[in-house]
Specification:
The chain has 361 residues and is of the alpha/beta class. It folds into two domains: 108 residues, Nucleotidyltransferase, domain 5 (2-Layer Sandwich); 184 residues, Nucleotidyltransferase, domain 5. Helices cover 42% and strands 16% of the residues. The chain has a six-stranded mixed β-sheet, with helices on both faces. Strands 9-8-7-10-12-11 form a six-stranded mixed β-sheet, with helices on both faces. The two termini are 15 Å apart.
Amino acid sequence: MVNAGSTSTKLRVVEGDDRIARSVDLHPTSAGMTDQLDRFLADAGPLDATGHRIVHGGPGFTRPVVVDDSVRRALDALNELAPLHNPPALEAVDAVRHVAPDIPAVACFDTAFHASLPEAAATYALPAAWVERGGVRRYGFHGLSCEWSAGRAAALLERPVATLRLVICHLGGGASVTAVAGGRSVDTTMGFTPTEGLVMATRPGDVDPGAIAWLAIHGVTPAELVDGLERRSGLTALTGTGDMRALLQRRASGDPAATRALDLYLHRLRAKIAAMCAATDGTDVLVFTGGVGENASEIRTEVCERLGWLGISIDAALNTAVEADDADISRSGAPVRTLVVHAREELVIAAGCRALLGRPA
């Protein structure tokens, strides 16, 4: 499986029993993608397929698909909608198809899980001509992670996923909150692109579109807007870094910029969790996942301590003890269960490949 994120590319070999047989993480400073993949594939042994996480599938891709030349051309058109993610993902697709042309390359889409969004959650109140010309709607992202988290939460609680109302916080370099009811996405914080919603490492989240229009009218070019919104906003704009570990350390040492940035981050996150609870008419389960969600116990504490009115309450000892295993960190008797689930997008991708190609699990 090839998972090209905004900060790294994760390579995994998944066996039929969902065992990870080989694992390598590539970072932006790594050597060329083709050379790295060539070495990885040479050591991986026989493969049935390569599965690729593609963040934005647009309106046309709502399920896994084998990448042939026509699909590859269609995916190119979506690059500008997710410029931090789709281009490196397609670079990886190209590298794999070059190195191993006889192995099917399967694209699995983060937007696919959100294809079930109801019209009220998916629609922007914009002129019809704009919507029709550009396919402008709310697509949602982190769908592979949400699909895994929903299923894993159901397994941990020993309840059918269809009976649960979940709010899933995927917190990493990119961040989103998703409402899941009946096993389906019913609302989410990211929209047409992954810039909407929460404050993130380099993206601003919600911004008044009038402010963006004002900047464009007053001389900020489209290219500058894209670069600023994707790469120079969010926590990076406020503090010079999007690294949550560094910001928590700086706040602890009294850094006012880090304190201000984290106050903003947490304010927006708590508000979005509450909104997603409204979308599911209350919630049974709150899930934290992603690099920050899994590893930053302080963030989990500061989110949950202000959401007690929703029935959310966590056990401090259980929260700080979270390590490699998924965990229930709820306080005994809390009406809402709070879980930490480690993201396993590669297993969702593997399942998608098997289903598409008719291979046994």
